[in-house]
């Protein structure tokens, strides 16, 4: 009994019988693994088909044979019936079906082989778009020929910004809402990932006007500034007075205030001699 698996890897994609009639995607270059529904008895004959072409066939009593298109890339397990195809390409997209012991299994395996999305480029047209224009066109540009299905998103940088799902091309109007948006960006997303463009300046952007200060706030700020000046002047005067006091020399046993020439207290020069 086969359990249900739905496993996605960049290199390998396993698609089980429960996924039949559902479009499943895998990346270009990956390996495809298709697992049939449960069956009874050993495999005596098996045929895997891609659209209307044979991938591999085993007739009873003969060896496996593969078509030219898949000969070097495909293999069929004659015990489990599992089909593996390596190095999948865009042209391998389509419907796969299997017949085991002459019984065609219901449904099929719808496979889409795609690439990852490219890094998009956000374009604004016309090239003359400016704040004088009434409207302009935003385009999320990039080669998505083999990347589908692709979903497009646009980013409008206003406050925290927000991504919005849109078409590949959108029209922006020169109105109050758009004028509040600083920048634009776009995103491409498919089943294998997403990529964003760089930020592009909004030609309609109008910077917000500065908020005026109410008169009462101005008065309060003026008073506080005045108090700061007064406090600074008062502090300076106090500091000057105290500094003058602290700069005066203190009394010393060897200092005579009246002896201005700095001579010793005995009135004698240091090199003079006293009479015997």
UniProtKB/TrEMBL annotation:
Compartment list: Membrane
A cellular component annotation (GO) from this entry: membrane
Compositional bias ranges of the Polar residues kind: 249-259
UniProt keywords, alphabetically: Glycoprotein, Membrane, Signal, Transmembrane, Transmembrane helix
Broad class of the protein's primary localization: membrane
Residues passing through the membrane, by range: 217-239
Region (Disordered): 242-276
Signal peptide as annotated in the record: 1-19
Name under which the protein is recorded: Ig-like domain-containing protein
